[in-house]
Design a protein that fits this description.
Radius of gyration: 20 Å
CATH class: Alpha Beta
Largest sheet: 4 strands, antiparallel
CATH topology: Bacterial Protein-export protein SecB
Strand order of the largest sheet: 1-4-3-2
Number of helices: 2
Mean pLDDT: 86
Number of strands: 6
Length: 137
């Protein structure tokens, strides 16, 4: 898997005051074409949108190998879709590759990381009296 283009922007200059920022992830397949028997080239776009605060966009591609590559490519050319199981695998692979890369770019732009970070809570009502323990949500 490779990234061919990166576009990233922070729209707001000052992020010093706390804000609720919704981060949306979107991945789309832009091309699915046969390279040789059982091998296809997949091109994609991934976008992490930080609402009015910023965005990170990747364009890239990878090689898909499978006995069904020709059938999927034909379906893609005709209908611009693919079987749900294959689509799930492809979009999961895109997210698993792009989200960690987006974390580093977000840090450079001083944007929040595009992943949910665990929150630690201390709850006195659970467990024995007087004992506190971390609960990861």
């Amino acid at each position: 898997m490779e990234i061919r283009a990166i576009e990233a922007r922070r729209y707001i200059k000052d992020l010093s005051r706390p804000m609720n920022i919704r981060i949306d992830h979107n991945s789309s397949v832009t091309l699915f074409s046969v390279v040789e028997k059982n091998v296809a080239n997949v091109e994609f776009e991934y976008t992490a949108s930080f609402g009015p605060v910023g965005m990170i966009k990747f364009e890239g591609g990878f090689i898909y190998e499978g006995n069904d590559a020709e059938e999927i490519a034909k379906r893609w050319q005709e209908k611009k879709n693919m079987p749900n199981e294959v689509a799930s695998q492809i979009h999961t692979a895109i997210l698993h590759f792009c989200v960690p890369e987006a974390v580093f770019i977000a840090r450079e732009l001083k944007l929040p990381p595009p992943i949910p970070l665990p929150q630690v809570k201390f709850d006195a009502s659970k467990g024995k009296k007087g004992k506190f323990g971390p609960e990861v949500v």
